[in-house]
Amino acid sequence: MNKKRLISLLIPVLAIVLGLIVGAIIMMVSGYDPVVGYTQLWEGIFGDPYVMGETVRQITPYILAGLAVAFAFKTGLFNIGVEGQLIVGWFAAVWVGLSFDMPAVLHIPFAILVAGLAGALWAFIPGILKARLGVNEVVVTIMLNYVALHVTNALIRGIAGKDTTDRIAETASLRIPFFEEITMYSRMHGGIFIAILAVIIIYFILQKTKLGYELKAVGFNQDASKYAGMNVPRNIVISMVISGFLAGLAGAMEGLGTFEYVATKTSTTGIGFEGIAVAVLGANHPIGVVFGAILFGALKYGSLNMPNPPAQIPSEMITIIIAIIIFFVASAYLFQWLYEKFSKKKGVK
Amino acid sequence: MGGTDVEYVIEMLNITKVFGNFVANDNITLQLKKGEIHALLGENGAGKSTLMNVLFGLYQPDGGEIRVKGKRVEISDPNVANDLGIGMVHQHFMLVDTFSVTENIILGKEPTKGGRINIKEAAEEIKQLSNLYGLDVDPYAMVEDISVGMQQRVEILKTLYRGADILIFDEPTAALTPQEISELIEIMKRLVQEGKSIILITHKLKEIMEVADRVTVIRRGKGIKTLNVSDTNPTELASLMVGRDVVFTTEKTPANPKEPVLSINDLVVKDYRGTEKVNKLNLEVRRGEILGIAGVDGNGQTELIEAITGLRRSESGTIKLNGKDITNMRPRKVTESGVGHIPQDRHRHGLVLNFTVGENVALQTYYKKPFSNMGVLNHKEIYSKARELIEQYDIRTQSEYTPARALSGGNQQKIIIGREIERDPDLLIAAQPTRGLDVGAIEFIHKRLIEQRDNGKAVLLVSFELDEVMDVSDRIAVIFEGQIIDIVDPKETTEEELGLLMAGQKINKKNNEVDGDKNSPSMKEGE
Description:
The complex is a heterodimer of chains A (349) and B (527). Chain A is mostly helical and 349 residues long. Chain A has one domain (56-305): ABC transporter involved in vitamin B12 uptake, BtuC (Orthogonal Bundle), CATH 1.10.3470. Chain A has helices at 2-29, 34-46, 49-74, 82-99, 104-133, 137-160, 177-182, 191-208, 210-220, 222-227, 232-258, 271-281, 286-302, 315-330, 332-348. The longest helix of chain A has 30 residues, at 104-133. Chain A is globular. Chain B folds into three domains: 8-242, 3-Layer(aba) Sandwich (Rossmann fold); 258-338 and 425-527, Rossmann fold; 349-423, no CATH class. Chain B has a six-stranded mixed beta sheet, sandwiched between helices. Chain B is of the alpha/beta class and 527 residues long. Chain A binds chain B through residues 1, 208-213, 216-217, 220-221, 223-230, 344, 347-348, and chain B through 20, 60, 62, 74, 76, 309, 311, 330-333, 335, 341, 343, 348-355, 359, 362-364, 366-367, 372, 375-377, 379.
């Protein structure tokens, strides 16, 4: 039993190492120096307080987006609409940040709450369609991503009269002067606390509450849940709404923390989609999601340093290397399989 | 036996297989003679399947050796087993529904001619094989259109087509009707006549007595004994298998029925296709009795139970529990009104397999005190209840934190039974409560049902096994095409009579008033 636990911890580490090795081989074959490349990646993550702050900033929305995907997944739902819910949440957060005048103690929570509710509302649509009419949530959420993108773009242009809104009021900002000081004025903000708090709350809901028990039961076996007297459609809606709320919070991180404004976008942000990868990396477990987000966010931000001299690795190649590392981690079951195959062979002898 | 001139086609000598620190097979020896039917008997979880998976190359043994026709072999995967002439007829058929019989049989071994599959030739060969062994299979029929019994014959043909001489039958009768079972037994005898050898995995003693030549009994991973069937009897086999004496006929005092708990009037229930599966059905179950429903699968049993428990809508008619109308109530309301339900399909309805034993114990009561308080679960209470039930119902599990998936069928069923009885329902509905279980578990479950009855509760038992219905029930209601066509006394009826009734032929007994009217089943039978 103990050995098994050790192996399950060892596998992701092994996968990262192997991913890095394959990435190194690709760099070498393409004529780049992997040692210099990885050194710059490292420095891009941990090199100085500024990049460390920025890395945390990058990780923050990933935690929430990954949590949103993982939570829906626990109930057997595939929420690809985190992206759209995030965009809606971002917009709503900035709107509250701009249009209301209140003290920070009220303004920040209010803006965050509205962002969450906006995301929740956006997720309620596929939720209710699935629960009442059996419409596949994947199709609806994908389509709603585009609706979210273009509707918010139109609203931004309509309200602001230009492609970018003004900065939100100081009272709605998540900026923390202490963080700015210690990270050489990076954009790291207090949102990381909100993300961690969300992880704790979601963990508590899933593990300790009646609601979590029902949601998981519905996710594992709808027939047995119905037999046990649970209201399956209601649980589907609740799961989508909570998932959307988390996605909306991820949007608030961008709107109130990183950017403090909202601009029209030509395409989706990608954070919502990458949330799927984060959830997979974290095995759909709230704590796992944190680690998934750290890995994903750190690689994503740290790799920005790789095109700089002397490594000068093109950003396309970096995308490939990140993808390979993620691929190896995500296919950890491959290692499990190899391990079992190996031990089986040994057993025969 | 045991002479040097005996020809063994398969010898599994001192096989040991270990999973982690669990010894699934401990030094088991099984020798199959040419041309015999050799039964492998054991409780659920005794290690039968593990042993056969070792023979079929799905597991590698940790000790011991396998010999085929005297030669030592290493069976590293199922293809090697196939090449050695070993074929397996799985309990759960592995067929593609939308393919024809021929297409299914040749799948993976298609005879090709210039890149095209020669279906005609294959069908011809299958036809010949089918005739040789008296299987009577139409090579061009679609699998989805043929009966379960026929599908099993397709599985048998699949192994024969691949040239198997040694056939392993894994619990072959589990899904069959009594009629199909006797046909299968004939087929097995025919196969042996034609020179095949058979290993029959089962826990049904009746079948072994009827068809097998020798039997090897295993218990908790150990080989207990190999016997000639002619030298033994079911009682001996059962006690060897379980490790203690087993009482076959369930002992019970006469029923002492009181007022009705469940009354059903003119109930109509449709299935998902919209066909009226329950058609103006009337039924009464009284406090202190076990009412058994006998019938061929598909005559409305499932729909009836689902309607009572609120899982399916009733079109018309009423269902009353203790005089209170519960027609079309939500499942939870029905449960709370005092109905316990052991569902027919324990994996689909009865358990959340990924949940732990403890979480499954709480499945019907998780939302109430003491398991839940203000929306927060009390895991301490849940798991202490689980430990209590594990003790009381002899649920064999590593711990209360083990996922239900990891338990054997019998122990999974004990979780459900413990959970439902523990709630002390006025009406306990048990649908196929012993399906796929071994004698030890069956005995245990029957005792619990009778206990409920003796405690003054009503029990509604639905089963496709005639033995079970006749053994446990105080009254037997025969269901046919959605109606109760007769109610008989198990002490006075015979299997033949029940068989006829189940086929829809109502016989006029001397004390029955003349009737041709199926719509008014005689409810006065118990008087």
